[in-house]
Prior knowledge:
Blueprint: E1 4-11, E2 21-28, E3 33-37, H1 44-52, E4 59-64, E5 67-68, E6 77-79, H2 91-95, H3 97-102, H4 107-120, H5 136-148, E7 154-158, H6 166-183, E8 186-190, H7 194-200, E9 203-206, E10 216-219, H8 234-252
Parallel strand pairs: 3-8, 3-9, 6-7, 7-8
Antiparallel strand pairs: 1-2, 1-4, 4-5, 9-10
Helix pairs in contact: 4-5
Amino acid sequence: xxxxxxxxxxxxxxxxxxxxxxxxxxxxxxxxxxxxxxxxxxxxxxxxxxxxxxxxxxxxxxxxxxxxxxxxxxxxxxxxxxxxxxxxxxxxxxxxxxxxxxxxxxxxxxxxxxxxxxxxxxxxxxxxxxxxxxxxxxxxxxxxxxxxxxxxxxxxxxxxxxxxxxxxxxxxxxxxxxxxxxxxxxxxxxxxxxxxxxxxxxxxxxxxxxxxxxxxxxxxxxxxxxxxxxxxxxxxxxxxxxxxxxxxxxxxx
Length: 253
């Protein structure tokens, strides 16, 4: 059974004159890590918004674990580019929000689960801090922990590290791989950074044209666990250049 499957899915934005997603079919396996790359405005984020239900397809079916998403709730966790931590709530209260929405937890239980999640991402002791007291990387880790508390095996990450400085971004990439190897969630990760995609992915899903009718699935020639030294291998450098060339052709069209 596939963790996620698109079956002839189409979507057109209100006021648009064509389907930006046009009969798209693809699937990903449970526990896999895929980065989606493509030029700006090509439809990458639209794919994630369709999965999490922020947008409704014009045609076709989206399935998670074999069942249509229209028949499910709490089937995925979604983390956008900005951390979206509420500034008036403590970090722990921000993390507890998915549990509040789901219901069935006491205040003490929510606090305990938030504390465990913070410790898991290296933020033990930050429960009662306000978001403004955390660095950018710490805020992103808190946002990821909140996404994990959504309780789903499917995580959708939309350029979560793009606003970070270079060294923090590199550190967060390495940290995210550690989290994935520990929890084995299924991850779809949107990025404009080709090197980031090559470093993180088991296979890169590439949007090579708009409307999006297919996603090219390109295996990354490196095993897990990964280290940054693997990016210097000739086959990895060749893949990186191939992806950059594909993106350039898309922009030039």
